[in-house]
Amino acid sequence: MYEREDQPPVIWLRKGPGFIHTNVKVSNGRGQEIGRFKSKLFTLGGGFHVYDATGQKFAEVKGDWKGWNFKLLDANGLELGIITKKWAGLGRELFTNADQYVISMSDSAPSVPDRAALLLAAALAVDLVFKEDQS
Question: How far, in Å, are 46, 70, 117 from residue 66 at the CA level?
């Protein structure tokens, strides 16, 4: 993820191999791991557990039954934000795998830079894990 085109990336996502669980490591622009996502088993709309750099679970991403809307929830179930897949029109939805997402962060989202970056990276992880191979 780039802040501007002429600048180096601020976030890197790397999807690891996985059969049952998919792991996505998130690193900052300097290559230091800031956290990871681990896919949940047996969810209707998909979801992840969100871990910080120390391996502490601090949030989860929970999808709805159709896999278009995802809630970012903290460990207590408080909503930190929402990821919504934007409808692109019939032609684009049927014939391409290009998706657009809208991310809305709540005021209660963490102000710690790495955690905020992980929550923003969640939308990329949703696309990378659940939508990448479906077209």
Answer: 9, 10, 26
Positive/negative CA dihedral, 113, 17, 101, 9: positive
Distances (CA, A) of 124 to 48, 84, 91, 117, 127: 12, 12, 23, 11, 5
Tens of pLDDT along the chain (135 residues)?
Answer: 566 777 777 888 888 877 777 889 999 888 899 999 998 876 666 788 899 889 999 889 888 877 678 888 888 888 888 888 776 666 555 555 666 777 777 776 666 667 778 777 888 888 777 766 544
Q: What is the pTM of this model?
A: 0.74
